[in-house]
Structures are given as structure tokens and as C-alpha cells.
Amino acid sequence: MQSLQDQDDLIPRPRGSLPKLCAAVLSAMTIGGVLFLSPERLFEWVAMVILILTLGPLLHGLCLLAEEILYHSNTRHRGRGWSHVLPACGLWGKTLLAAGLAGLLLHLVRHPLPHQGQSLKLVFLASSLYPLLKSLGVLGPSEVEVSALCEGRKMNVAHGLAWSFYIGYLRLVLPRLDDSITAFCATKTSSLGRGSRKLIILIPLNANISHKLNEEDNRILYCDNLPNNEIDRAGVRGRVYKHSVYSVFDEHKKVHECVLEYATPLLTLHSMSQESSAGFGEPERRQQVLLFFRTLQDILENSLECRNHYKLILLNDEHEEDPHFLSKAILRNLQQQEKEEYCLTPSPQQEKGEYCLTPSPQQEKGEYCLTPSPQQEMVNPFLSQSSSRASAPPIKGDWHHPDPISREPTLMFSLDPPHTLKHPEENSHHYPGK
What we know:
It holds the Pfam family STING_TM. The protein is α+β, with helices and mostly antiparallel strands.
């Protein structure tokens, strides 16, 4: 089982703009070479090349336009006219503008190209061969281009499944999760603590989901269900949403309870990979699972309704021989949540110790209080250590408690009146007779 740090290495990052940068550098080097060899012909050659590269896509767009107008104007475009069909075929926008500017630049140049007749023949021949090569797939987009296009426009299967999982399930149940756990703990003896008051969602890379977790790992036992949430949804009155509580045992047979389930949309990905008609093999399935995890994580991080109510665990369960890898992964994440601390470290000039923002034992909903580090004695953290305060009056009260454990930690302030950070300046005015 991979560690929590290795999880980020599995998730693909969004594709950046490095190809554009490399293309710009290559174009600049090529133009620089042409400028060095024949500077008087630079604009003519650049205009000629741009015209060749843009006329080809425009002619291919005309071929696409013939198909769309004759057979698909009503079914695909719903008779919306040329204003919709032309841009859909690529006969609008940047390509048309670039071709027009290149033609205008070629017309305005003062020095005609050598062998101008042959150059024009080359333009028309290259432009007319482009649609043929494009239609045959020779000039088709690469897999990387298709992947980048689908990810940029959110057209992958994983994007649709992630949004469906969020809109149709998580956004409905996660805001009610804390109340369900509270009601469950009030009626049953449970060890659901602060760190386990989240819905743990398991996402295995192979998308192979077991419907009974104890069959996959005998250290995970079904405990009970949380109270049902009944929500009116899509015409169904009182549709039931439920969560299951599981007992997870560690190697010392200590029990840890948590609300646990798999991401249900992974069943769809796994079933699609088993159907030959779906054209969805194992490599594509793995890639879609990673995109599903990244997309769902981004959606939930930006959702105020679901924040702090979930925990996603990506399971790299390939080539795993440990029969308890699932329980170990769950316990590792539970321990990370329960031992999490946020420290407020003092500035280098302060020498009275480090203060940590830790949860109060009585709090259950993530409220925090400021308590000193266990190794530090309880002193006033706001007292200045500068030499100019050596003659200040003594602090009232005693900052050292005889038994610090006998009382709840509190936030302590200095009893000194506020002091300015600047030295006092003489700004009084004396008037005669006063």
C-alpha cells in the first residue's frame, strides 16, 4: 500500500502551456535563421507559409460543411442557420482571420517572390492536399491532443461521473452527516470520535469494488447503519440515503469505528471496461479513475456545503499481496486526522516557547483553542522581551498553575495596559499665560 505522500505522485496534473512555449521558441529560431539568410524576403515567406497552413483547414471546413448542410442541418443543428454551422465546421474565427491577414500581407509586399507562378502553384497544391490527408487521419490529432481537449472541456467520462456523484449524492448527504453521526452516538455505544466524523470514500485504481468489505479484509467488520436520510428527489417522496458504520481493527486488535464506503461510480467504469462495445480498455479505465479522483477532489474542495465532511482515499491496490492492505490504509488516514495539529510558532525574537492550535477535548465539530506546547511552561506569550521593558512594573497574577491538568486550557492575556511600539515624542505646545 502506498504512503499518503505517494498518493500525489499517482494523480495526473492538468496539462500546462509547455508545448506552446516550445512552439514559440522553435518558431523564433526558424524566423531568426530566415532573417539572417535572406532578410529582404522575410515577410513574403512568412505570409506564404501562413497562407498555406490556413487555406488547408479552410478547404477541409468546406468539405465538412457539405456533409452538415445536406444531412445534419435539422437533426444536429436544429436549423439554426449558417451562423451556427460555419463556426462548427471551422470556417470562422482565428483560421479565417489568419488566412485573410496572410493574403493581405502577401498582396502588399513590394518585392514579388522569385518564381511567383510556382509559389502560387505550391500554395494551391498544398492547400488542396490538406483535406485529403486530414480525412484519411494522417494529419489527425494525437492521443495527447485529444486527451488535453477532453480534459480542458470537461468531456471525459470521469468528469461526468464525478459531477453526477457530487450533484446526485454527496451534496445531499454530506451536510447532514454530522447530525446523523450525533443521533447514532446518542442511541448506541460507539467510538466514533472527532477524527472519524467524516465519510471515508475509497477509490481503488483498478475500479474493482467489493460489496462486502469483510470479504476483502477480515479486519473490517460491518457494525450498523446511520439513521436514514429521507429526501424528496426527482419525484420520489422520501428517497432513502444511508451510510454504514464499520469497525476496523489494527494489528493490536484495537477497534476503530468509521463511516466507510466505496465511490459508487467506479462500478460504471469497471463495467464499461468489461464490455467490448464500449471501447474502454484497462489503460483507459485506470486513467479515468485518476481523473475521477482529481475532479471529485477539486469539486469537493470548492464546495462550502461538503467541506470537512469527507475524506478521499486513493487505493493503489495493484500487485498487493497483503490481505490487510485495505484496513491499514483506512487506519493510516484515521490516525492522520486524529493527530493533526496546527501550530502557531512565535517569532524568532520570542523565546518563551511554541503555542499550538489544538482541538479541545470537549469539542466535536472542529472548534479549537490556543494551548501551550506540553514542553513549555505557562508564561505570558504576549510579554515583550526587549531591553526597554526591563523597568516595567511586575505582572499581576501568577501565570504558573499548581496543577495545569486539573483545569481546562484557557487563552491567557497580559494584564499590562497596551503600549505603543514607538518611543514617546514631545508634541505638546506651551502658550503664554497658560
